[in-house]
Protein: Membrane-associated phospholipid phosphatase
Organism: Desulfocurvibacter africanus PCS
Amino acid sequence: MHILNELAARLSGVASLLLLLGLFILLRFIVLHAGRLLWETARRVYNRVSKHGIWDRTEGFLDELRQRYPRFLGFLDARFTPRRFSGLPLTLLFLAAAYIAGLSLELLDEVLEANEIVVMDQAVNQALAAWRSPTAVLVFTWITNLGSTETLTAVSIVSTGFLFAHRRVAYVPPLWLCIAGSQLTTWAGKYAIAKPRPEFIVGVEAFSPSFPSAHATGAAAVYGFIAYILVRDMINSTRRFEIGYWTMVLVLLIAFSRVFLSVHFLSDVTAGLIVGGFWLLVGVATAELLARREHGASK
């Protein structure tokens, strides 16, 4: 009977993992087709607006404003021009980073003061108890190691070697900025907040404070930046989507593994993903500025 129960537990673990993989594959098709639909809709709207001459009238109105307020409109043109990275792309990255920083501070305030977050964390941890079969624990233990500081450092070292070999040196400093910034921010936050971890129940242990998750932070920053390097100069949009999507899946699996293995609460990994996203944007902005400076110097 014990053998049958153990076999059933292992089969249920395999089934749950296959179900999770199937959900990610289904989500891939949904996101891909939804993105194509949104792109086609946006293109049609743009064409209709252009046919009615709205852009021409808007441009005439902006010309009048430029004559009245040349300095102010010049500043706005410099910030919102899509022709230079220091214009609209950098502005959007700055706004996104500021928004992510605000989210992180809001979540920190909720963690420190709101009982609802504590209740939710405990409820999620207890809900996963029924799914923690030996097979699932083994798989997620392997996945969680992909987000360890040792693994991320090794990945960054190997990536640095490839970047030097392919003469893409401009991406090396931003890559190490991502891993150093994400880890320093996370470990400083851990000991400043000193939030206790959940009870260890599957044999996986950690001894540092819980909030935020260093695995989630580092995975989002480092794997996200490597994905950005891969897709930046790639022409095929389908390949760019596949790399971006499956990198996101990897990062989410690493974050989820920390909750599944009961070494972090949901709020810990959520904060980790937010902080990692912030450093990813900082790394991308730095890389683009360095790449354009290097390109300009080579002319």
